[in-house]
Amino acid sequence: MIVYSVTCLVDDSIHDEWLVWMSEEHLPEVMSTGKFISYEMFKIDPHDESDTGTSYNIQYKLENRSLLEDYSNNHGPALKAKTAAKYGERVLAFRTILEKV
Fold it and tell me: Cα–Cα–Cα angle for 82, 86, 90, nearest 5°?
């Protein structure tokens, strides 16, 4: 089992719009690639109450690494570009690959 983990820091100015977009557009688009078994989305507790923005972690589950490679080569770049075009630097993301042991 592989988990493709995406952590996003969302600017306060677009937070509500981004949540709707994630739920109604982006997550269904990612899942429609057929590469993932499921996903879970988590809100991250802030380290400091004075932090700006809200952080989320989305964990997509896959059967194996070859499915992730296929996604990364054939679907990921277009979806990342679409997100960047829509939100620019108002959403910052980093990705981690986890393997169940």
Answer: 120
